[in-house]
Specification:
- The chain is of the alpha+beta class and 119 residues long.
- The chain contains 3 helices and 4 strands, in the order ααββββα.
- It has a two-stranded antiparallel sheet with strand order 1-2. Strands 3-4 form a two-stranded antiparallel ribbon.
- A hairpin with a 5-residue loop joins strand 1 and strand 2.
- The longest helix is centred in the middle third of the chain and has 31 residues.
- It starts with a helix and ends with a helix.
- The model has no long low-confidence stretch (mean pLDDT 79).
Amino acid sequence: RIEIEKSLDNVEEELRQLATESSGFLQKALGLRQSAVLVEKRLKLMAQLEDMEQRYPLQQEKVLQGPNGVIFAKEGIIAVKRFRGTMAAQEQYHWVGTFKFNEFFEDEYEEEDDDDDAP
């Protein structure tokens, strides 16, 4: 999502620069193709961003950034999935508990990696 937003900002900036640099009729005519390509790219990025927001409706206050850029829910339910019925056609979920993350300690992961390298 962040990469798409950065790309969208870059396209918007390029469009602004193109609009300010094109002062004469000839410059506007030459920049027409480039601006059309940028507008198409902006529409595509906006569609991707909207699609991502529909698929992954993350509320920033309910998620936590983990190691290696992985996003975790701050709290949730731990469940076990079990198949039942004829040929295991039915799925059942059994709630076994809840979890809650407050923060990740990335320094601990780095120290463990350093210990693995020791003889």
